[in-house]
Each structure stands twice: as C-alpha cells, then as structure tokens.
Write a structure and sequence with these properties.
InterPro entries: ADP-Glc_PPase, NTP_transferase_dom, Nucleotide-diphossugar_trans
CATH class: Alpha Beta
Order of helices and strands: HEHEEEEHHE
Number of domains: 1
Protein name: Sugar phosphate nucleotidyltransferase
Radius of gyration: 15 Å
CATH architecture: Alpha-Beta Complex
Number of strands: 6
Largest sheet: 4 strands, mixed
Family: Belongs to the bacterial/plant glucose-1-phosphate adenylyltransferase family.
Strand content: 15-25%
Shape: globular
Keywords: Glycogen biosynthesis, Nucleotidyltransferase, Transferase
CATH topology: Spore Coat Polysaccharide Biosynthesis Protein SpsA, Chain A
Pfam families: NTP_transferase
Amino acid sequence: MALHADLIRAAGPDLVLVMSADHIYRLDYAPVIEFHLQQAASVTIVTTDVADEADATRFSNVRTRGNRVTEFAYKPDQPLGKTVASEVFVYDTAELLATLDELTAAGQLGDYGEHLLPRLVAGAGLRFCPGGLLAGCRHARRLPTGPPRFSGWQVLPPRRP
C-alpha cells in the first residue's frame, strides 16, 4: 500500500478497502464498511474461524475482546486460536497514511502483517468484523456474482502509477 500512498492521497477517499488478490469468496462489502464507520475504527478486519486450529498458522491470527482486536500475529508458528483474518480490510485513510509514513520513515514497511497491523493494534484502533455474522458473507469456492453494490459510494478503478 505504501507504493500507492500518493494515489490514495490524490483520490482523497474517506476509507480504503483492501482485499487479497488470491482468495475466492463471496462477500457483500457494504455491511463491512457500515460496521467500520459505526465503530470509528482505524482499521476493520473481516475474520473467520478455521475448523482445525493447526491450520491457523497459514493465516494472520487475531485475538479479540468485544469487537476489538487485542493481539495480531502474522502467520505465527503457534496459532493464537481458530480466528484468522480473511484478508479483507477497511482502513481509515488518514490513519492508514499516517501509519505508512511512520513505518516508511523507520524503514519498517514489510508486508501488511509485519508492522502495519501490529502498529494499529498497539494504538487500539483495530476492530474485527466476524464473517459469520455478516449478512451476505459466504466464504466459498465460487466467484463473486456481479460487481459490489454500494449505496452512495463511488468505487474508483485501479490506476497504474
């Protein structure tokens, strides 16, 4: 994301929705965005539970209390439990850019899970949105059906730098 910070600044969005490019699922992003706005979070992570805790080491792990993420571990050797990040994130733009700037200055960018999310957890601004509780969230091995529907939201196409 740091590579696209200037594009994010130029577009001036209120929030930034980030999705993994290597996952196939069906998810209506509108409830995730609404949840994020209601919580006034720095970042919201959509989570899901894996059936076997041993499988959690292949993903980012989270521990939660209420709707707050209290601990985040990026593909840990020992799982924190069965709750994992589904790699759908909604960021507050100002908080995201400020944190990216801090990490860039400190030479600590790396992957999102190495420094960005742990920094936001430390700032207590991280919330989780359990996938099983979201209407329209069905993690499955099928492609999304049609474009996302956002009421009043402008979805900008990607631009190459």
